């Protein structure tokens, strides 16, 4: 029987340098623990403003890049070098600046992108690209135990102004997905419309999930997500089952309207 999820841990920082540095330390600590247990570190990352905020990892001696296995928490269905690609964004801000082996970065299958990106949407091609990404996850995770869902060591997420996270948008039928690991959408309100996303069961089986949010334009959203979880915004539904834990790394501007208690950051 899974236990009830534990309460989110909210850490707020007075400026972006502190946030970026603390986030880097947190990731490195998660990485160390995971390597000690299983000799690898499985991580999923999102797009948006997040990749830039990972630059505290660049040049840090504690990062064992060759042990990282990287997946995307969500990805836009566009060529990998397109300006909208989350992989492209991560490559620009991080992967191109650190010695992470290319084969450890699991992108959507480039051979399937053109058909899946077609207009009008081709449901078979979209199914195929989602299945192929799920297969990559199965290859990485499935033989561990008989777990029904992968257990990521860490998933890094952002939150949109409407409370979406990954490509899980308010009111979307995917919010109640219970069995798929990876799903596609063709109607993302945030462009581009066609995307792949990890589903809630995957996110909520992770050992750790960390949201990263900064700026005054996130203040209302964070207030609703953290103080009014009963409203059920997608970001409020991120509650990993115990012993999993969700963290919020935010700056004071983003946390300005939040009543939820803050925890001083410590490793
Ligand atoms: O591909 C995407 O669009 C993202 O993964 C998305 O879920 C993002 O994390 C949020 O929209 C927050 O984006 P910002 O950090 O840019 O506000």
What does it look like?
The protein has one domain: 3-Layer(aba) Sandwich (Rossmann fold), CATH 3.40.50. It is 26% helix and 16% strand. It has six helices and nine strands. The chain has helices at 16-38, 86-93, 110-116, 123-141, 200-203, 219-227, and strands spanning 9-13, 41-45, 68-72, 74-76, 154-157, 182-185, 195-198, 208-213, 245-251. The strands form two sheets. The chain has a six-stranded parallel sheet with strand order 1-9-8-5-2-3, with helices on one face. The protein has a three-stranded antiparallel sheet with strand order 4-7-6. β8 (208-213), α6 and β9 form a beta-alpha-beta unit. 42% of the residues are buried. The structure holds 6-phosphogluconic acid (6PG). 6-phosphogluconic acid is lined by residues 46-50, 74, 76, 86, 158-160, 164-166, 190. 6-phosphogluconic acid binds next to β4.
């Amino acid at each position: 029987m899974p236990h009830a999820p534990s309460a989110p841990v909210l850490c707020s920082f007075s400026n972006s340098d502190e946030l970026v540095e603390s986030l880097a330390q947190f990731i490195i600590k998660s990485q160390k623990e995971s390597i000690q247990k299983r000799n690898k570190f499985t991580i999923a990352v999102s797009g948006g403003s997040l990749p830039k905020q990972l630059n505290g990892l660049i040049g840090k001696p504690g990062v064992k890049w060759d042990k990282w296995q990287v997946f995307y928490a969500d990805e836009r269905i566009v060529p990998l070098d397109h300006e909208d690609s989350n992989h492209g964004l991560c490559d620009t801000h991080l992967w191109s600046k650190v010695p992470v082996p290319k084969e450890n970065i699991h992108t959507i299958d480039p051979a399937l992108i053109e058909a899946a990106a077609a207009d009008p949407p081709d449901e078979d091609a979209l199914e195929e690209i989602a299945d192929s990404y799920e297969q990559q996850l199965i290859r990485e995770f499935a033989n561990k135990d008989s777990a029904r869902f992968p257990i990521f060591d860490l998933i890094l997420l952002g939150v949109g102004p409407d409370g979406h996270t990954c490509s899980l948008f308010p009111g979307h039928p995917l919010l109640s997905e219970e069995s798929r690991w990876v799903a596609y959408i063709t109607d993302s309100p945030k462009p581009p419309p066609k995307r792949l996303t990890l589903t809630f069961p995957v996110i909520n089986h992770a050992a750790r999930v960390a949201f990263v949010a900064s700026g005054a334009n996130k203040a209302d959203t964070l207030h609703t997500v953290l103080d009014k979880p009963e409203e059920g915004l997608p970001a409020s539904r991120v509650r990993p089952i115990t012993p999993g834990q969700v963290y919020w790394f935010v700056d004071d501007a983003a946390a300005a309207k939040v009543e939820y208690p803050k925890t001083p950051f410590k490793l």
